[in-house]
Design a protein that fits this description.
Elements lengths: L2 E10 L3 E4 H4 L7 H8 L3 E4 L4 H15 L9 E5 L10 H9 L5 E5 L5 H14 L5 E9 H4 L5 H4 L4 E11 L4 E9 L7 E3 L18 E3 L1 H22 L9 E2 L6 H10 L11 H4 L6 H11 L8 E8 L3 E8 L21 H16 L1
Parallel strand pairs: 4-5, 4-6, 11-12
Antiparallel strand pairs: 1-7, 2-3, 6-7, 8-13, 9-10, 12-13
Helix pairs in contact: 3-4, 8-9
GO molecular function: 3-oxoacyl-[acyl-carrier-protein] synthase activity; beta-ketoacyl-acyl-carrier-protein synthase III activity
Pathway: Lipid metabolism; fatty acid biosynthesis
Subunit structure: Homodimer.
Length: 359
């Protein structure tokens, strides 16, 4: 049975930056208030749809692996904010890449989407269904955020990341994984009026609202991420001391620190970039993987733990044995279309809707 090595990686962050001070121009908040509670300073706001962000990240990941688009025989796109429900976003990426061979599917497990997609890609390779799979995590949460809700609006941003997973005889890649869900408290993190279960003819439909129970989320998130990490390490005959790098979901610095503490892992082993990008949901882990490699945190043969949680409340973790290559084979010249708007200008239509809803 083959293993599934991560051979390519790429990220795409839109250029428009929204700082905490920008948020303070239209809501009762401050940089100190946000940073002290979340560890966030800024986030990106996209001027393009989520599938375009994903395409650019995908091009970069494929180039990094030294492959051509048609070498890919599977595309799994993890997202909570698809541009279209039908057709799926993975087929858009396939078309933009010029790929003629790949099966294309979307997966939605909120912030766990990339982790779950990576586990599924690994299983498909191990079962010899596919040989080279493109795994994407991308979000345009600026579209879905309730910009009138301070507890939600400060937390999220847009972005995309992708990896290429290839069949190999070497014992590398995801060697163990665990996926779960606390469905009994699924309403603690929910977009209340988004989906076919809600009346799209109602006057409030265009204004998305959120249910966000921070205390319940913190409790379940830390528990799920720790239990899942301990599980995957035990399956791999490892302990927390054997881990070289932890690349967690970047939801909130407090959650990341709590997970590290319970795993007895020093923070210098933990990849953190939540200050720059906030929570990009499905995109946090692949973007963080890219930046951990850029920083030299992931070295050849490194033991990498990847815990995550998301709405649902989904949770999980993977243990990854990294291969020998930690630098790109090649690079891509693909870029996003030019943007001439500030982050505040990009979200103004959503602010107008929120203001209208409040009247």
């Amino acid at each position: 049975m083959p293993y599934a090595e991560i051979t390519g990686w790429g990220k795409c962050l839109p250029p428009a930056i929204m700082t905490n001070n920008d948020l303070a121009t239209f809501m009762d908040t401050s940089d100190e208030w946000i940073f002290s509670r979340t560890g966030m300073r800024e986030r990106r706001i996209s001027h393009v749809d989520v599938d375009e962000l994903a395409y650019v990240a995908a091009e970069r990941a494929i180039a990094c692996a030294g492959l051509e688009a048609n070498d890919i025989d599977g595309i799994i796109f993890g997202t909570t904010t698809p541009t279209t429900l039908a057709p799926n976003c993975a087929s858009y990426v396939q078309k933009k890449l010029g790929n003629k061979n790949a099966a294309a599917m979307d997966l939605n497990s909120a912030c766990c989407s990339f982790l779950f997609a990576l586990s599924n890609a690994t299983a498909l390779i191990k079962n010899q269904v596919m040989k080279k799979v493109l795994v994407i995590g991308a979000e345009k949460l600026s579209w879905a955020v309730d910009w009138s809700n301070r507890n939600v609006a400060v937390l999220f941003g847009d972005g995309a990341g992708a990896v290429v997973v290839e069949a190999t005889d070497e014992p590398v890649g995801v060697l163990s994984s665990k996926m779960g869900c606390y469905g009994d408290v699924r309403e603690s993190l929910a977009i209340d009026n988004f989906g076919s279960g809600f009346d799209r003819t109602a006057n409030t439909y265009s204004h998305v609202t959120w249910n966000f129970d921070g205390q319940e989320i913190f409790k379940r998130a830390t528990r799920g991420m720790v239990l899942a990490t301990e599980d995957v390490l035990a399956k791999a005959n490892m302990t927390a001391e054997d881990i070289d790098v932890v690349v967690p979901h970047q939801a909130n610095l407090r959650i990341i620190e709590a997970v590290a503490k319970r795993l007895n892992t020093p923070m210098e082993k933990v990849m953190v970039n939540v200050e720059r990008y906030a929570n990009t949901s499905a995109a946090t882990i692949p973007v963080a993987l890219c930046e951990a490699l850029e920083r030299g945190m992931i070295t050849p043969g490194a033991n990498v733990a990847i815990p995550a949680f998301g709405a649902g409340l989904t949770w999980g973790a993977a243990f990854v044995k990294w291969g020998q290559r930690v630098t790109p084979v090649s690079s891509s010249s693909v870029e996003l279309p030019a943007n001439d708007k500030s982050a505040l200008e990009l979200i103004k239509p959503y602010l107008d809707i929120a203001e209208k809803h409040q009247k």
